[in-house]
Amino acid sequence: MIRFKNVSKIYRPHTVALKNINLHIKAGEFVSIVGQSGTGKSTLAKLLFAEERPTKGELVIGGWDVSRIRRGQIPLLRRQIGVVFQDFKLLQKKTVAENVSFALEVVGASPRRIRELVPHLLRIVNLEGKAGRYPRQLSGGEQQRVAIARALIHRPKIIVADEPTGNLDAINTHDIINLLKKINEFGTTVVLVTHNREIVNSLRKRVITLDKGEIVSDQEEGRYRL
Ligand SMILES: Nc1ncnc2c1ncn2[C@@H]1O[C@H](COP(=O)(O)OP(=O)(O)O)[C@@H](O)[C@H]1O
Ligand SMILES: [Mg+2]
């Protein structure tokens, strides 16, 4: 599903953010990426949704060679990959339902399809009663659930979440992680970047540790050791 072959990412002029990454993530896995600040976790996430490109090496995602992808193909790749960020990135002037439906409108989905899918997604993230609210009228945890509903809109094969609970308290963190687990149980591959030790240790899933741009450990049912 995701394969890094000798991938390096160098930000000009000379910041080596990732160094010779070799990694295979299979369909349906739930993988946590951990490590200290500045070790390349977000860079790895950005490579996955083609916000950045490898400087060296090859990155293949679901049959797409992302290292060589043409600009025009990036939107097609991104439909297979849902992305969730620490700061939610919701559109403040749109309601919950509009934030979720926006990506469907962009690709020209029919109004009927939108009317079906948006309530379905809001049900999955437990926000069916809040469709008409604006982001500022929601708690942080609720905003992140809207962002997750939006990320699911194209039924992606992969969800990439970069510190999705970084702005949340313990209870909301727990809810978001449970939601990601549920999405993973539906069959979606989840790549979770986090530095939350409790989350990682309670997940009992694969853990990849980065240090200074390199993978220093990769363990099934791993623990956070830094
Ligand atoms: N757009 C950029 N331009 C230059 N350097 C960057 C850029 N983004 C990240 N970096 C640098 O790359 C390294 C890895 O950053 P990042 O992937 O954000 O790490 P993490 O998410 O683990 O904190 C850091 O040294 C950071 O300063
Ligand atoms: Mg980061």
Structural class: alpha/beta
In whole angstroms, the N-to-C terminal distance is 28 Å
CATH domain class of the largest domain: Alpha Beta
Bin the strand percentage. 25-35%
Low-confidence stretches: none
* Count of helix runs: 7
What is the percent of helical residues? 25-40%
Q: Which series of helices and strands comes N to C? A: EEEHEEHEHHHEHEHEE
Whole-number average pLDDT? 95
Please explain how this structure is put together.
- This protein has 226 residues and is of the alpha/beta class.
- It has two domains: 1-80 and 156-226, 3-Layer(aba) Sandwich (Rossmann fold); 91-155, no CATH class.
- The chain is built from seven helices and ten strands.
- The strands form two sheets. It has a six-stranded mixed beta sheet with strand order 6-7-8-3-9-10, with helices on both faces. The chain has a four-stranded antiparallel beta sheet with strand order 2-1-4-5, covered by helices on one side.
- The chain binds adenosine-5'-diphosphate and magnesium ion.
- Adenosine-5'-diphosphate (ADP) is lined by residues 11, 15, 17, 35, 37-43.
- Residues 11, 15, 17, 35, 37-43 line the site of adenosine-5'-diphosphate.
Structure described in brief:
The chain has helices at 41-48, 74-78, 96-106, 111-124, 140-151, 170-185, 197-203, and strands at 2-11, 15-25, 30-34, 56-61, 64-65, 81-85, 158-162, 189-193, 206-211, 214-219.
